Each structure stands twice: as C-alpha cells, then as structure tokens.
Amino acid sequence: MEALFRKYIRDGIRDLLAPMGFRARGTAYRRIGAEVVHLVQTQRSRYSEEPAIVFAVNLGAASRTLLRRQHVEPEKLIECECHWRSRLCAPGLGDSWWTLRDETSARSAGEEVLGLLREHGLPALERLSNESAFASRWEDATGLELLYAAQLFRDTGAREAEAPGRSRESKRVAAPRVGWASSRFSTK
After folding, report:
1. What distance in Å separates the CA atoms of residue 188 and residue 98, rounded to the nearest whole number?
2. How many domains does the chain have?
3. 38 pLDDT tier (thresholds 50, 70, 90)
4. Other beta carbons within 10 Å of 88
5. What is the DSSP string of 109-130?
6. Rounded distance, CA 139 to CA 133, Å?
7. Residues 122 and 42 in one domain
8. Burial zone of 46 (CB within 10 Å; 0-12 exposed, 13-18 middle, 19+ buried)
9. Looking at residue 141, what DSSP letter applies?
C-alpha cells in the first residue's frame, strides 16, 4: 500500500506542485515566497487499519513576518503553525478523507486530490500570496486572527493594505478597528 500511496498521491502532488516552486520535504510541500509561505501537507489517519491507508490533504499559508516573530523556520513549517489553514475538500464538504485499499482506489484518490488541488486548493493559496492579502482577510478578525493581524500591522508598520479583488472605490482597507490592538501594538 505504501508504494501505491507514493505513486499516486505523494509523487502526483510533487509532480503537480514542483513546477510552481514547491519543494517536498517529508509529508509537506512548501513554496517559500518573499512575504508568504504556502504549504500542502498530507496527513494520515491514526485510525487507518492495515493494509488500507486513510489520509487527508491540508493547506496552509503563513506570513514570513509572523513566522520570524514566532521563531519558525519556513523550511520546517507544518500545517498547525500556519496563519491560514484549510482541509482540501470538494465544495460544500467540510472534511475529506481518502482511503487507499488497492490500485483502483489509489488511482481514483490521486485523480480526485490532484483535481481538487488544481481547481480549489491552489487558487485558495494564490489568494493569500502576500501580506496585504492577509491584512484584507483579517479586516474583521476575531480570536487568534486578531492577534496575528495586530502583530503583522505592528511589525510591518502597515496601517492600510491593498485588498485584492475589490472595486476601485474601495480598493484600500484599514487595519482592524480594535482599540486595544492599535494602542498596544502602536508603531509610534
């Protein structure tokens, strides 16, 4: 089963992502940009029963500014350290796991995973291709994203950022409107 996982899943993902600048290391494929690191990582279920392999594919993006603050090396980034995370799945589904039992199921899973990466996963990562994209995503942040936003704005000195895909009139978005974050993380 390991050989089928390697052939249809791991090598298939590598062959799709390598021309786009992703590098494989272990179960993860990373593309390290000037501002953002993109991650595609396979995750095996601990409940897989031999000889089957049950797995999911996780996506992540991380700000290099925040990674420096958190002392995380981009080359070793794992999914749980990303500032944006998602599971690769078909639209409308919240969670997708694939099961490899034989060559037919492995081939089918590989085709589905690669198709979903092309159609949904990679475009989602592209929408977070720079820190300005994170800033616009976090305009109405709450919880941990609010902390990330405050740290990013403090460390980059950003007060506004270009919002991709917005109309010309509303092309700029302000930093989150949170008094405690503005005063606590002020760059003045």
Report:
1. 51
2. 2
3. very high
4. 21
5. HHHHHHHHIIIIIHHHHHTTSS
6. 10
7. yes
8. exposed
9. -
Segment 14-32, tens digit of pLDDT? 999 999 999 999 999 999 9
Q: Are 163 and 173 in contact (CB under 8 A)?
A: yes
Which of 77, 104, 126 represents a domain boundary (last residue)?
126
Please give the sequence-ordered ranges of beta strands (E in DSSP) within 50-94, or none if there are none.
53-63, 84-87
Contact 136, 103 (CB under 8 A): no
Instruction: Express each pLDDT in 129-188 by its tens digit.
Output: 998 887 777 666 667 777 777 777 676 665 444 444 444 333 333 333 333 333 333 333
Give which of 165, 131, 163 is closest to 34, Cα–Cα: 131
Domain boundary among 126, 143, 160: 126
Quick one: residue 163, left, alpha or beta (phi over 0 = left, psi -120 to 50 = alpha)?
beta
- In 93-122, which positions are buried (b, 16+ CB within 10 angstroms) versus exposed (e)? eeeebbebeeeebbeebbeebbebbeebbb
Amino acid at site 39:
L
DSSP string, 25-58: ETTEEEEE-SSEEEEEEEEE-TT--TT-EEEEEE
